[in-house]
Design a protein that fits this description.
1 helix, 3 strands, globular
Length: 51
Amino acid sequence: YVVKDMLGQGTFGQVVKCWHLETNSFVAVKIIKNQPAYYHQALVEVSILAT
């Protein structure tokens, strides 16, 4: 991934616009803070998005 732009920043971390080198497409990547509470919240978000 190549970071191209900052899309937003919040309590849990940052969202950046990235260029995915393998698929040649833009993606949004959420970068969370390195703390257990934020990690567990991110797992909940992944679970919701996967359904």
